[in-house]
């Protein structure tokens, strides 16, 4: 009995057990998911915020980091308040503005209407980046480990602007700088965040991603030429053998389009898998280094599984997707290094009092 | 029952990540104290303990006002201590109090009631809207047409006379012709009616215009307009995320969905008022007949008919209203009819229809 002696923990990559572990089961999650669905329906969707909280509480509590479980300390109420705030501050003005611009348009004030619409779009663009950062900050500030939480004092308004210009610059050289903007924005987000007294450090670099990105970039052209060539050949043979081949041509075109999207989708996934490995792999926190070991195949299996689950259950399976995604995330996360528990003190960052309403409004993921 | 008791526990103090192991003791007077071999006991107010969560093999409690303080209790504690611990929370405070089934049923009933109120709101809220608001709304909508409302002195006078004939007494209905080449007419809030020029040009005689105008006046007098506007507004709020594209509002003004009952009511109103004014209902029958035949080979344009289904039945109803042996007078004289038909041509300041 007493304090932990020394309070020193060391993890090496070759340790038999990963620093992160997940011991939840879908059977345990099912009662949570189904009661959440029921309550969300009978409350006309309002319970959704409490449902999210319950699901996260389960997923976090079944996730182990080194020797202690994570804990989700957020509440449904703060998510609900976040939602109401976003509706009040952005939803209603946007709704009114869309009416005003139409009226202006109809009354012939075209220039003013276009200016207003552009202003609106710019604001949404800005808020999109801001939302992404703030959701991450909220989630870290509600994630406890050994009673310690994360967070940030940076409200992210600067990040919103960074997001705007870096995304534009990423697309400017014919989209070739997108890997740079993605890694750079990842760094910009994580370098603003901390856990306990220590900041995260992210140094993701785009150089290792360019190969796969170029593959994704050039694939449409190659595929287009290939499918075109096959199509032309089919038409030529069709012209020789007569009208019966017309169906064959149509089939080739449909098959070509299908192949186009599947191949492109897999290449995009391969790029994203690499990006995520690079992004997480560049992340450090004090003397800990993180890694993410999901290969393209792992991601593919995840997504095909998602699709199969949703289709085979006629959509009901959607309620298990958060479980699948979190499990995927938790089992592929790795960490190595050492943690000095003595110096790991409580985060002094300000606690945001409302949840991720803004992100909720845009319906995108945080990480 | 109130005797001393203890149970081994672990805790994090919320200040550092170090885990502490010790005993949770119930002491005299029902006080809960965390005992630690090398330090003084920490007194916990039982009412400050908060249930956090249930994990495999352990329960977690927090302490109100101390971020990160976590008490981990493995297994069961002696009943003397259990009695002082807060009860586990599961679904949320309200639901836990009533139980899942009862809470779900309760929510379902409340939700159904709210849905019913929301769905019927347009019909009882519409008539409650003050006339001054309605008038302002109508003027804003007319404003949306910009300078596309045709005006000539003779035409305006003819329209006003026809409206007065069909609707004697009460606040006068303001009638205008919109320079839009489609067959449509619309009643706006605040007692305004717009006939679209396509309809005016298509009319073979003044009785047809009278029938359409009487129908729209029916919507105004039977207070359908605000009800339909509110319903449309509700739908647009619900689908705001789905499509807020430009043009929704413009088409919304023209394509207003009245209920079928409202349409029949407005038709009946029109027939009654036309009879009072000695105007032949055959004008209405002719109008419906022609539009019905046109819609056969020209689908898509017929917004008027889309929101006014079953035009054959309506044609028959107007036809049936014509009584033999009753003398009718034309709704307008030839000069007046010509004045209305010429409004958009003769008004030199009116703008063409188009968004730009």
Task: Summarize the SSE layout with pairings.
The complex is a heterodimer of chains A (about 375) and B (about 350).
Chain A: E1 2-3, E2 8-11, E3 20-22, H1 26-42, H2 48-61, E4 63-65, E5 68-72, H3 76-106, H4 110-141, E6 143-145, E7 148-151, H5 157-171, H6 178-190, E8 194-195, E9 198-202, H7 210-241, H8 245-281, E10 283-285, E11 288-292, H9 296-312, H10 321-332, E12 333-340, H11 357-362
Helix pairs in contact in A: 1-2, 2-3, 3-4, 4-5, 5-6, 7-8, 8-9
Chain B: E1 5-13, E2 19-27, E3 31-36, E4 39-44, E5 49-55, E6 58-63, E7 66-74, H1 79-82, H2 93-98, H3 100-125, H4 131-144, E8 149-150, H5 153-166, E9 174-178, E10 185-188, E11 192-196, H6 197-202, H7 206-221, H8 225-238, H9 248-254, H10 260-276, H11 282-297, H12 303-306, H13 311-321, H14 334-341, H15 343-346
Parallel strand pairs in B: 9-11
Antiparallel strand pairs in B: 1-2, 1-7, 2-3, 3-4, 5-6, 6-7, 8-9, 10-11
Helix pairs in contact in B: 3-8, 5-14, 7-10, 7-11, 11-13
Number of strands of chain A: 12
> What helical percentage do the residues of chain B reach?
40-55%
Radius of gyration of chain B: 36 Å
With helices defined by DSSP (H or I, 4 residues minimum), what is the helix count of chain A? 11
By secondary-structure content and strand pairing, the structural class of chain A works out as alpha+beta
Tell me what portion of residues of chain A adopts beta-strand conformation.
Answer: 5-15%
User: What's the N-to-C terminus distance of chain B?
Assistant: 84 Å
Can you write the helix and strand succession of chain A as a string? EEEHHEEHHEEHHEEHHEEHHEH
Distance between the termini of chain A: 39 Å
Profile the largest sheet of chain A: 11 strands, antiparallel
SSE string of chain B, helices as H and strands as E: EEEEEEEHHHHEHEEEHHHHHHHHHH
**What percent of residues of chain A adopt helix (DSSP H or I)?**
55-70%
Shape of chain A: globular
- What summary fits the major beta sheet of chain B? 7 strands, antiparallel
Strand content of chain B: 15-25%
Q: Care to count the β-strands of chain B?
A: 11
Derived from helix and strand composition plus strand pairing, the structural class of chain B reads: alpha+beta
